[in-house]
Amino acid sequence: MKNFILIGKALTLVTWAVLASNMFIPEFWSSINANIGLYLNLSFIGLVVIHNFEALMFMNKNRDTGKPILLDGLQVFAFGVFHPLSLNENNADLGYSKAA
């Protein structure tokens, strides 16, 4: 499971890099296809909206845990669902139970 999470995080970072690169060097992408810049911009907006929603849900759910959640919220924004999966994996390795 740990390898799946690491591969997912790496692919998420690659996706962020490709979509954000269109903001800085759009002529590279438009040389490949004239309309691809529009699709990359729309995908970037969609990724930001979805990850923002995930981060807000995560921070709202874990608001009363007593642990600082801002950094975890930022990681959820960056990596999406893979960061909560890694937290669950770490808790399982430490012997914590969800039922407790």
Short description:
By secondary structure, this protein is mostly helical. The chain has one domain. It has helices at residues 2-24, 26-32, 36-61, 70-79, 82-94.
Poorly predicted ranges? none
* Number of individual domains: 1
Content-based structural category: mainly alpha
Give the number of DSSP strands: 0
Largest sheet: none
**Strand fraction band?**
under 5%
Overall pLDDT confidence: 87
- Percent helix among the residues? over 70%
Silhouette: elongated
Order of helices and strands: HHHHH
Count of DSSP H/I helices:
5
The N- and C-terminal alpha carbons lie at a distance of 23 Å
Radius of gyration: 17 Å
How would you describe this structure to a colleague?
The chain has 100 residues and is an all-alpha fold. 79% of the residues lie in helices and 0% in strands. Helix 1 (2-24) crosses helix 2, helix 1 packs across helix 3 and helix 3 (36-61) packs antiparallel against helix 4. The chain is elongated.
Write the layout of secondary structure elements.
Elements: H1 2-24, H2 26-32, H3 36-61, H4 70-79, H5 82-94
Helix pairs in contact: 1-2, 1-3, 1-5, 3-4
List keywords for this structure.
mainly alpha, 5 helices, 100 residues, 0% strand
